Amino acid sequence: MYDHEVTASDSLDRTGTLVAVAVFAALLVDGMDLQMLALALPSISRELHLSSVAAGALSTYTLLGMGFGGVLAGWLADRIGRVHVVRGSVLTFSAFTGLIALCRTYQQVAGMRFISGFGLGALYCIGTLLAAEYTPTRMRTTVLGTLQAGWSVGYVIAALLSTYLLPVWGWRALFACAVLPGIVTLGLLWKVPDPPGWTATRNRRENGAARPNPFRAMWAVAPVRRTFLLWSVAAIALQFGYYGANSWLPSYLVKDLGVSLQNAGWYVAGTYTMMIAGKILTGYLADIVGRRAIWIVAGVLTALYLPILIYAATPANVAYLLLLFGFLYGAPYAVNATYMSESFPAEVRATAVATSYNIGRVGSTLSPLLIGMAASKYSIGLGMGLLGISYAVCALVPGLFVREKMFDPKTVDTAVAASA
Questions:
Q1: How does pLDDT run across 58-109, given as a tens digit for each residue?
Q2: Among candidates 264, 198, 118, 246, which has minimal Cα distance to 411?
Q3: For the chain, which terminus, N or C, has the lower number of CB atoms within 10 Å?
Q4: Of 411, 353, 350, which Cα lies nearest the Cα of 82?
Q5: 3-state secondary structure 290-331
Q6: CA 94 to CA 65: how far, in whole Å?
């Protein structure tokens, strides 16, 4: 459909390696930040005398910030460059997460969460895109799957830090821990140039080529528009399934199965640890077998396993069943960044990827609510089991209708289309 002007090298060069390390560190802090709020929420609620509604709204403010920040970041990344946006996102979420340590009122915490959400949403979409544009095709999913594992490593580190910091130093010290890794990441990114593909696009503009609005360009070209809409549906389904399971897993263990709080914490930590392994292996397999095939397999297996897990789980065996669940339910994320980044041309890539993924936050917002409604009438387990439907949709919509490797992010694309 579109031609490429330059063939990419098959090796990850020094700059690409530096970018990968920096983005891994940034995603680690991103994961830490998201998990810190969940872990600190009981302490924050107790100190600030919050209702359940007010406490839960802190997560909503974060998600709203991530949604707005992600879409804005995509537009900016196509305008001013990927690296500037990634640096700005790391600075934003590190600084404003750290500032939570100084907050004394609910309104201050809520404001900091909303602003830090801008950086979190921007980093997730554009950080992985930056890495994709520096990584050769033959190893791209392996590298990006490993970077996605950084998010899960952040979850585990946050859980470990909370064990030591919350009882002694309180919740403020936990949020202060986000500052140092953010500074390290900024140092790694300080002299990184923008990828050749985006640089070539900028040079064409400087030489007099038209500078289309990326939203308008994306919508004007029928194949790009179709791909964007398909990925938007997939993003809603993926986040509906993932965040629904993530949000309710601890409550399911404690309330439905009667697992103790202490054991539930260990079981969840084991689930996240297996998720790290699952993302790395899934990324590796996607480079060998193909993005599309592994995307379908990962989503369908998760869809089938969720109801089996809920039906078969008992307090005695659930720890073992969750190990396989952890391996499976984060696996689509290992392929997601690569598959999406290879679906769009350079001039609209950041806008299309960031906007479609952040439309998916509709799913992440609705899923916990709908499972809660199911739990009030039936059980948490029933609501979680039904998440298999969303994983099936997530697997099949792009898997059946979006070709893999339509564009190579490491090469220089020709223009999107004259009509754009």
A1: 777 888 888 888 889 988 888 888 889 999 999 998 899 889 999 899 899 9
A2: 198
A3: N
A4: 350
A5: CHHHHHHHHHHHHHHHHHHHHHHCCCCCHHHHHHHHHHHHCH
A6: 14
Q: Cβ atoms within 10 A of the Cβ of 9, count?
A: 10
Is 420:216 a contact under the CB 8 Å cutoff? yes
Residues contacting 360, CB < 8 A, separation 6+ = 232, 234, 235, 236, 237, 238, 239
pLDDT at residue 304, as a whole number: 95
Cβ neighbours of residue 149 closer than 8 Å, sequence gap 6 or more: 275, 276, 277, 279, 280, 334
Give DSSP secondary structure letters for 56-67: HHHHHHHHHHHH
Q: For residues 320-339, give the mean pLDDT.
A: 92
List pLDDT tens digits, range 275-286: 989 999 999 999
Q: What is the full DSSP assignment across 380-394?
A: HHHHHHTHHHHHHHH
What domains lie within the chain, and their CATH numbers? 13-198 (1.20.1250.20), 212-420 (1.20.1250.20)
Helices 14-48 and 52-80: crossing angle in degrees, nearest 10, is: 160
- Residue 262: Cβ-neighbour burial (10 angstroms; 0-12, 13-18, 19+): exposed
Give Cβ neighbours of residue 347 (< 8 Å, ≥ 6 apart). Answer: 78, 201, 212, 214, 217, 413, 415, 416, 420
Q: What is the mean pLDDT of residues 403-420?
A: 65
pLDDT of residue 412: 58
Rg (CA), the chain: 21
Rounded Cα–Cα distance for residues 351 and 344 (Å) = 10
Closest CA to 147 of 27, 299, 1, 278: 27
**pLDDT tens sequence across 159-192:** 788 778 878 888 898 888 888 888 888 888 887 8
Return the exposure string of 318-328: e unless at least 16 CB atoms fall within 10 Å of the residue's CB, then b: bbebbbbbbbb
Residues whose CB is less than 8 angstroms from the CB of residue 308 and which lie 6 or more positions away in sequence, other chains included: none
Q: What is the pLDDT of residue 212?
A: 67
Read off the tokens for 268: 């969840």
What is residue 205's predicted lDDT score, i.e. its pLDDT?
61
* Residue, of 200 and 132, whose pLDDT is higher: 132
In this model, does residue 347 exceed pLDDT 60? yes
CB 272 within 8 A of CB 321: no
